[in-house]
Amino acid sequence: MPHHIVLLGAVTLLGVLEQAYFALQVIAARRKYSVSPPSTSGPPEFDRIFRAQVNCTEYFPMFIAVLWLAGIFFHQGTASVCGILYLLARYNYFQGYSASPKERLGPMYLNAAILWLLIGLSTAGILHELLSHYLGLKII
Amino acid sequence: MPHHIVLLGAVTLLGVLEQAYFALQVIAARRKYSVSPPSTSGPPEFDRIFRAQVNCTEYFPMFIAVLWLAGIFFHQGTASVCGILYLLARYNYFQGYSASPKERLGPMYLNAAILWLLIGLSTAGILHELLSHYLGLKII
Amino acid sequence: MPHHIVLLGAVTLLGVLEQAYFALQVIAARRKYSVSPPSTSGPPEFDRIFRAQVNCTEYFPMFIAVLWLAGIFFHQGTASVCGILYLLARYNYFQGYSASPKERLGPMYLNAAILWLLIGLSTAGILHELLSHYLGLKII
User: Fold this and answer.
1) pLDDT score recorded for residue B135
2) What is the ipTM of this complex?
3) Which cellular compartments is it found in (chains A, B, C) (predicted)?
4) CATH number of the domain within which A93 lies
5) Is the CB of A65 less than 8 angstroms away from the CB of B17?
6) Most CB within 10 Å of its CB: which of A74, A122, A126, C18?
7) Segment C4-63, tens digit of pLDDT
């Protein structure tokens, strides 16, 4: 079984590493702009980095969920390629948001598009499984 | 194997779609009440919608975790029905909180009750598996 | 298959229970320091408990992800022991942060160390599976 999910595992691991990188950037920004915990607001530069990390963190569980659903019910390779593109767009989102709220928009739309694509692949795969198992329909 | 988890997959997918809906409501509220990122506070109407989304997002990983544990170790169908009820209660929570902090309370207690039920089912299923595999006890 | 993941399931369940405990502590602190939703700031005592819970919640999905990757691709027992240690350190982190920002530091470093250990075990297991499946290399 492991080889049916190893690519999904690899993308998940890269996702965790990216989240760890974002968390370290917030720690560095706390030092740079003297924002001590438990405070979470400071100069605009800090606020942007902080919000960028929070936003990536909010979407992380949704991303992991549809990555695995698309990978298990549709196709592992396709889902994993989408996953890598999502993580790249997330990196650009974080860098863009750190510079200005406007520069986060491009990668944000790309992230949303990839997430919807993974949702679409998951839906197709799950519907196919539901129809074939419960109704005996074989579409493909 | 896929048919042993397809209902859990379907409920997870619905959960991701619900989270996406909540995120879109926050974006709409940001426009309506002129709260530009990275700011996260505005008039009370905005604050309630924002907090409703944050709360749903905080509980999402816990919900998905016990949905799958209950579905794998106890019973897929039972866990999936609980999952659907949880998502409905979450929708009511979000709508209620958008109206007033008080109106979030009913669905909040229902959400908590379903979560504890899923925790109970997971505990029963995992204990049964631990006892039967490591101690050779067959309860059922 | 269930016995290959039952320890991971048990640790995940304990993690959900711990998160529920943290959430209940925040509700108790809201009452004690009269901080009504949707507000999220109050006296420093409340702010610390609130931030401690948010921080644990942010890391929860990453922790669950590497717990399962390390457990599936490396070794279930080793990953589960790391998982239990992580949950204990999280408890100490929460208690420490509730007392003062400084007292959160020790458990925070321990949490980070265990997370990096789980990342290392996941990386080893996934690389091994990738190399053996796609390149036919058998390292062990």
Assistant:
1) 87
2) 0.94
3) Endoplasmic reticulum membrane
4) 1.20.120.550
5) no
6) A122
7) 999 999 999 999 999 999 999 999 999 999 999 999 999 999 999 999 999 999 999 999
Provide the pLDDT confidence category of residue B139 given band limits of 50, 70 and 90: low
Assess if residue C23 is contained within a domain.
yes
User: What CA–CA distance (Å, rounded) separates B106 from B109?
Assistant: 5
Please check whether residue C140 lies inside any domain of the structure: no
Number of domains into which chain C is organized = 1
For residue B38, give how far its alpha carbon lies from the nearest alpha carbon of chain A (Å): 6
CA distance B116 to B128: 18
DSSP string, chain C: -HHHHHHHHHHHHHHHHHHHHHHHHHHHHHHHTT--TT----SHHHHHHHHHHHHHHHHHHHHHHHHHHHHHHT-HHHHHHHHHHHHHHHHHHHHHHHH-TGGGHHHHHHHHHHHHHHHHHHHHHHHHHHHHHHS-----
Query: What is the span of the domain harbouring residue A6?
Result: 2-134
Chains with ≥3 Cβ pairs under 8 A against C?
A, B
Torsion of CA A38, A42, A44, A46, to 10 degrees: -50
Look at residue A138 and tell me whether its pLDDT is greater than 90.
no
Classify burial at A74, counting beta carbons within 10 Å of its beta carbon; exposed 0-12, middle 13-18, buried 19 or more. Answer: buried
Is the backbone of residue B34 left (phi > 0), alpha (psi -120 to 50) or beta?
left
Alpha carbon of B21: minimum distance to chain C alpha carbons (Å): 20
Q: Do C50 and A38 make contact, defined as CB atoms within 8 angstroms? A: yes
pLDDT in tens, B102-113: 999 999 999 999
CB contact under 8 A, A62 and B16: yes
The answer to whether the bond into C37 is cis (omega within 30° of 0) is no
Q: Are C6 and B133 in contact (CB < 8 Å)?
A: yes
Catalytic residue ranges of A: 31, 104
C49 domain-assigned: yes
A47 to chain B, minimum CA–CA distance in Å? 6
Instruction: Just list the catalytic residues of B.
Output: 31, 104
Residue A139 lies in a domain: no
